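Table S2 (continued). Query chain:
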Amino acid sequence: MHALVIAGGEGQRLRPLTDDRPKGMVPVAGKPILQHQLEWLRSNGVQHAVIACGYRYDVIEEYFEDGSSFGITARASGSPWAIRSSRRPWGAGER
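Corresponding output:
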């Protein structure tokens, strides 16, 4: 199963917490909000996720890498890396 996580926006109302990170990387209960979301998705059968982001996407890519250490395949869109790594359209079969 595949999922799309919408994680765009600068999080201006969360300043200063988002000065150096996107709002999805703000820690809640010791880990980033996006990690809570990916763990929930994984526990509900999702195997592949794309994180649609823009502001400071580099922080998300650096933290999650390919998602394997979190038990899910994940990539951040909005970056050249995500576009290059997308070889087949979603729904075209498992990789």
